[in-house]
Amino acid sequence: MALKIVTYNVNGIKARLPRLLEYLAEQQPDIVCLQELKSSDDTFPEADIRDAGYGAVWHGQKGFNGVAVLARGSDPVERQRGLEGEPEDDHSRYLECDVDGLVVASIYLPNGNPQPGPKFDYKLRWIDRLRARAAALLAEEVPVVLAGDYNVIPNDDDTYSVANMAPDALMQPESRAGYRRLLAQGWTDALRTRYPTGGVWTFWDYQAGAWQRDAGFRIDHLLLSPQAADRLVEAGVDKDYRGREKASDHAPTWVRLR
C-alpha cells in the first residue's frame, strides 16, 4: 500500500475546478497540495471538493497566491499557516498539515521577477524563512513532505533552454544556492532521485507554443525528510493533464510513499 502525494499549481481554482475534479476522480491521489488558488477563503469550492471525497484545509487570498491541502477520505489537521520572520508579510504561500501520519506542507515560493529588485529580494528572504521552518521540522524526526511550486529551476538539465531562462529569477545563482542550502539540511528531492539526469518538466508556459514544443522546465518539487525518503517508492509527473482543455500551465507532480 503506497500513498500518492501530489503537488499541483492549479493557476486559479475556480477556473480549473473541472480539471481538478477530473484529476481527483481519475487518479484518486491520497494527498494533494494545491498552489495559486487565486481565491479568497470564503470563495474556496469546499463543497465540490468534499463531494469528490476529499477533506481540505486552505489559506486563500483574493486574486493571487493561495495554498491548500486535500486528503482523500479524511480532514487534514492544520499545524501552521505562513512562515515566521516577516510579520508584515500577508501573502498566502505556506500551509502545513498533519495527514495520515505525515506532515505535509503546501508551498508557493515567490516568483521573484523582475530581478534584480524588491521582488527578487523578497524571494531570497522567503527561501531563508522556509529553511528555518524546514530545520525545525527535521528536528521532529517524523516523515515530512515539503511539496509545492518552488519557482526555482535547480539545475541546467531542469530546463529546455538554459539560454532562454538565464535572465529569469527562477534560475539565478542566488535562487539555486538557496534551494541547495535547503536540500543540504538533509532533504531528498524525490523527482531528482528518480530522474538523476534531468529532462523532466513540470511547467510549460501558455506563450509561444511551449506545450506543443515541449519547452518546459522543472519548478514543482517534493522534498522528503529522511523518515519519508526511507519510504520512497516512485516519483513522477502526470504530464498528460497539462495538455487538456483549459488546463493549468503546471502538471500534477507526485511521489509515492510506502
From TrEMBL:
Q: Locate the transmembrane regions by residue number.
A: none
Q: Where is the Endonuclease/exonuclease/phosphatase domain?
A: 6-250
Keywords for the protein's UniProt record, in alphabetical order = Hydrolase, Magnesium, Manganese, Metal-binding
Gene3D superfamilies according to UniProt: Endonuclease/exonuclease/phosphatase
Q: Which InterPro entries does the entry mention?
A: AP_endonuc_1 (IPR004808), AP_endonuclease_F1_BS (IPR020847), Endo/exonu/phosph_ase_sf (IPR036691), Endo/exonuclease/phosphatase (IPR005135), ExoIII-like (IPR037493)
| Marked site (Important for catalytic activity) residue numbers | 220
- Identify the domain of life: Bacteria
Per UniProt, the cofactor note for this protein states:
Probably binds two magnesium or manganese ions per subunit.
Q: What is its EC number?
A: 3.1.11.2
Site note Interaction with DNA substrate, residues: 250
Entry annotation: catalytic residues: 108, 149, 250
Q: Name one GO biological process term.
A: DNA repair
Binding-site positions, Mg(2+): 9, 36, 149, 151, 249-250
The site annotation (Transition state stabilizer) covers 151
Q: Which GO molecular function terms does the record list?
A: DNA binding; double-stranded DNA 3'-5' DNA exonuclease activity; endonuclease activity; metal ion binding
Q: Which cofactor does it need?
A: Mg(2+); Mn(2+)
User: Which family does the UniProt entry place this protein in?
Assistant: Belongs to the DNA repair enzymes AP/ExoA family.
- PANTHER family documented for this protein: EXODEOXYRIBONUCLEASE III
Record protein name field: Exodeoxyribonuclease III
